Amino acid sequence: MGWWTKKESADEQDSDDIHKDVLAAGREACYKARDMFYACVEKKSDKKPTEVASVGLLYPAECKRARADFVKQCRPTWVKHFDRQYCAKKRVERLLESQGSRKGPMSLPQPSTFKQ
User: Which residues lie within the region annotated Disordered (predicted)?
Assistant: First the structure.
């Protein structure tokens, strides 16, 4: 009677395997596929987005092949991370663009408005 079961010891053996997608060549292929997909999304930004990716990212149907390659080359957690990163970047760009139209001095709250 031990602490380890056969399943856990089998999992330990699996953890010794080399995951090729985290090696330099695998990461490079992932980054290249990612860049191709997001370049397509930017290039086709005038098209109506009809496809849904992770984290609510919408993209045009013309980028389906690039998306499939991106998903194939990268780990699912990486795809989700990159999608979140892209969406956050776009939100910041939209925010900065909308604030860019506001001209005039920036007003900061006065110290008296803070509770002490």
Answer: 97-116
CB atoms within 10 A of CB 3: 5
- Give 69's pLDDT tier (boundaries 50, 70, 90): very high
Can you tell me which residue has the tokens 């496809």? 51
Q: What are 70-111's pLDDT values in tens digits?
A: 999 999 999 999 999 999 999 898 888 887 665 555 555 556
pTM assigned to the model: 0.66
Separation between Cα atoms, residue 38 and residue 71, nearest integer Å: 12
Q: Is 2 contained in some domain?
A: no
Place of tokens 């990212």: 57
Residue 85 in any domain: the answer is: yes
Q: Name the residue among 15, 65, 20 with its Cα closest to residue 39.
A: 65
Count of the separate structural domains present in the chain: 1
Q: In the chain, which ranges are continuous DSSP H helix?
A: 6-15, 24-43, 64-73, 76-100
* Cα distances (Å, whole numbers) of residue 6 to 15, 16, 17, 36: 14, 16, 18, 44
